[in-house]
Design a protein that fits this description.
2 copies of one chain form a homodimer. By secondary structure, chain A is mainly α. The first copy, chain A, has a domain at 79-189. Chain A is 76% helix and 0% strand. In chain A, helix 4 runs parallel beside helix 7 and helix 8 (149-170) packs antiparallel against helix 9 (174-188). The longest helix of chain A is centred in the middle third of the chain and has 26 residues, at 51-76. Chain A is elongated and about 60 Å long. Chain A starts with a helix and ends with a helix. The relative contact order of chain A is 0.11.
């Protein structure tokens, strides 16, 4: 059974995640996070000493979540050369279309927001997380018998990041479909 | 001859551009812009009524600049199927490697920062600017005799946006080279 303190901590992490993801890191303040979690600011500071500290907790929680999500996609992919690509972009399209006010990759947005602070802990974590996804993809492409899996995995990352930015800019998911088509052609081309 | 007032206005736009581009919109304050432009805050407010107003001026200046840059790239491209792609990504690589503390596309970053505000004037301008670049590319690809130029132009945009995000995340320009290679393969593939 989770203690009350653990439950409150988790509520705060969820509230911080929602707030950062919706309004960005800089424009979110600690009061808004406390209000969303329905706790006092005093309680918030009993768990986290600063907004930066909360961000670290959110990111480390996110890292576990992202690893679970990759494992989950991995399990559900049937055989066949295109199916991994399709599953990957279908998951992105589903995420973008079912999330109210979808704003793309929280990690990529955080890096853009903290672009002048390359040493920030959030930047370090973003690098690690994107590198993990790229390696995971290379592994899966290799298992599917696709030639030069590391190069193809990098291209998938380029297309996926581009699709998220342009879907957000244009408010148009056609960019996700275009990215999926391009990825399939790249897998087939010499 | 430019009047003193025009000169100060231009100084303020340049200072605001630099500040927004380096630290993002939210974390830049009007005091920092005035200090960078070497004018008093009173002078700044004599020209612009708010930070939002300054952002509008910066973006409209940027729009002209971007149009000139596209025309400039267009003029210098020799014939041949790959040369447009090469020129496009070479220009991106040059920009990323010669700019101190390069942080990618200011417009894309602004959209990420204002992700929860789809009606913001900066978002409208970003959409228009990215659409202009995509159409320009489609026109050039069509002139070069490349089949399905609109689809290929969209793929170039995806790869370019992805390359900027991932170069910033990893601090590694290899992503620009990978995007250029992928673009050339997409142009050749069926």
């Amino acid at each position: 059974m989770r203690s009350k303190s653990e439950k409150v901590r988790r509520q705060l992490i969820d509230a911080a995640y929602q707030s950062f993801w919706q309004s960005g890191y800089t424009r979110t303040n600690v009061d808004a996070i406390a209000a969303r979690a329905r706790v006092t600011k005093r309680t918030l500071y009993g768990h986290f000493r600063s907004k930066d500290n909360l961000l670290e907790a959110v990111l480390s929680h996110y890292e576990e979540f992202a690893a679970q999500r990759l494992a989950h996609i991995g399990e559900r992919i049937p055989g066949g050369r295109d199916s991994l690509i399709e599953a990957f972009f279908a998951q992105l399209a589903r995420w973008a279309s079912t999330t109210p006010r979808w704003t793309g990759s929280g990690l990529s947005r955080l890096v853009m927001e903290l672009a002048d602070l390359p040493g920030h802990p959030a930047r370090v974590m973003a690098r690690r997380s994107k590198a993990t996804t790229e390696s995971w993809l290379a592994g899966r492409l290799g298992e599917a018998g696709i030639a030069r899996p590391r190069e193809r995995a990098r291209e998938l990352m380029l297309l996926m990041e581009g699709a998220m930015v342009l879907t957000l800019i244009h408010g148009n998911q056609a960019y996700i479909g275009a990215a999926a088509q391009a990825a399939k052609r790249l897998i087939k081309s010499k």
